[in-house]
Specification:
Structural class: mainly alpha
CATH topology of the largest domain: Serine Threonine Protein Phosphatase 5, Tetratricopeptide repeat
Number of strands: 0
CATH superfamily of the largest domain: Tetratricopeptide repeat domain
Strand content: under 5%
Mean pLDDT: 89
Shape: globular
Largest sheet: none
Radius of gyration: 21 Å
CATH class of the largest domain: Mainly Alpha
Order of helices and strands: HHHHHHHHHHHHH
Length: 221
């Protein structure tokens, strides 16, 4: 595992003098309400502008250094940008500040899974579900991790619970279908793949492509 060192963000205002308009804008960013900064950070992350999203959350963390949610959100953006080491550091801080924050355990588990540390990932998914039994993402993610460990029956049980909870049905059917596929129950796999394709939203092109690829592999085999 390669560790990633954190570098302090470069500050362009230290290299170039501010004119009066820049000074006004900089001052304005300091007085913007928290809700605006969080919304803007989310928007920038969705656009793939991770450095700016992180910079906005840095402002929030400076204002509220004891707010676990902001650390959790920044960790998520680090994770989305491929910076797993600082992501885990932020999730650790979020958990220290708020040990009951289920999403921080789920998000840290995703990092562990990305590193291949599946046992650690399962422990965090377990904790997230203990804290919030209706947390569908954690049930789905734990199912995926169990599948990667070859524990197909347990994985399906997790997806069954996610189906009962009724949220993220397209993801649930897609991942359960993949589990049946690898387990060798092709009829159930095809049925779940087709259910998933019926439910996937038009803007979720990545999931649609993934399911179509899995289905094509199965039908063509």
């Amino acid at each position: 595992m390669k560790s990633q060192s954190l570098k302090p963000p470069q500050n362009q205002f230290q290299r170039h003098p501010l004119n009066w308009k820049q000074q006004s804008l900089a001052h304005k960013s300091q007085i913007l309400p928290d809700k605006f900064l969080r919304t803007h950070a989310r928007s920038k992350a969705q656009q793939g502008n991770y450095p700016e999203a992180i910079a906005l959350l840095n402002q929030l963390i400076t204002r509220h250094p004891k707010d676990a949610i902001d650390y959790n959100n920044r960790g998520l953006i680090y994770f989305q940008s491929g910076q797993l080491f600082p992501a885990i550091a932020d999730y650790n801080t979020a958990i220290q500040l708020k040990p009951t924050l289920a999403s921080a355990y789920n998000n840290r588990a995703n990092c562990y899974a990305a590193y291949g540390q599946l046992t650690e990932a399962l422990a965090d998914y377990d904790k997230a579900i203990d804290l919030n039994p209706s947390y569908v993402r954690a049930w789905i993610n734990r199912g995926i991790t169990l599948r990667e460990l070859g524990k197909y029956e347990q994985a399906v049980e997790n997806f069954d619970i996610a189906e009962i909870l009724g949220q993220l049905p397209a993801n649930t059917y897609a991942e359960r279908g993949r589990t049946y596929h690898l387990w060798g129950d092709w009829n159930l796999a095809i049925a779940d793949y087709r259910r998933a394709l019926e439910l996937i939203s038009d803007d979720n092109l990545r999931l649609r492509y993934q399911v179509e690829t899995w289905l094509a592999q199965l039908i063509g085999s």
